[in-house]
């Protein structure tokens, strides 16, 4: 089974399982994705890009911070120190994403599950603290 076939098989099993809270997100710009329900926000979409050497995965986290940009990025770096195989990255506009890569050599279903689980966990741990740090004025907490 090719890495792309394995990825489709694993993610399709989640989509087909009514208890998994995972749905098909579709295809976009050569990538395809799944949406999974979360506790801290409604859902997270994970996009996959299958290459010759790795399978890349990416999930949108937050728009550019409105306040405390430096503190927010410092928090992201501290979280990245403890997270694997996913990490928080900023694009050229300052939008935050969770990204990672899975080597396709000897890939197994557990590698895919670990990667998606890491995205889920990073959203659960980072979303609310980053939201408070970068989008609420100093001294205002909800």
Q: What are the salient characteristics of this protein?
A:
31% strand; 3 helices; 39% helix; Yope Regulator, Chain: A; alpha+beta
Give me the CATH architecture, please: 2-Layer Sandwich
Strand content: 25-35%
Kindly provide the radius of gyration, computed on alpha-carbon positions and rounded to a whole number of angstroms.
Answer: 16 Å
On the 0-100 scale, what is the average pLDDT? 94
Q: So how many helices? A: 3
Strands of the largest sheet, in order across it? 1-2-3-4-6-5
Shape summary: globular
**What is the percent of helical residues?**
25-40%
**Sheet having the most strands:** 6 strands, antiparallel
Count of strand segments: 6
Order of helices and strands: HEEEEHEEH
């Amino acid at each position: 089974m090719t890495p792309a076939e394995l990825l489709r098989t694993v993610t399709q099993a989640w989509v087909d399982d009514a208890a998994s809270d995972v749905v098909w997100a579709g295809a976009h710009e050569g990538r395809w994705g799944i949406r999974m329900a979360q506790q801290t926000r409604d859902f997270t979409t994970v996009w996959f890009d299958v290459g010759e050497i790795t399978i890349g995965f990416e999930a949108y986290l937050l728009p550019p911070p409105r306040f405390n940009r430096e503190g927010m990025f410092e928090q992201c770096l501290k979280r990245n120190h403890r997270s694997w195989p996913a990490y928080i990255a900023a694009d050229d506009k300052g939008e935050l994403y969770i990204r990672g890569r899975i080597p396709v050599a000897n890939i197994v279903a557990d590698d895919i599950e670990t990667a998606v689980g890491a995205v889920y966990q990073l959203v659960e741990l980072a979303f609310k603290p980053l939201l408070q740090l970068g989008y609420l004025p100093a001294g205002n907490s909800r």
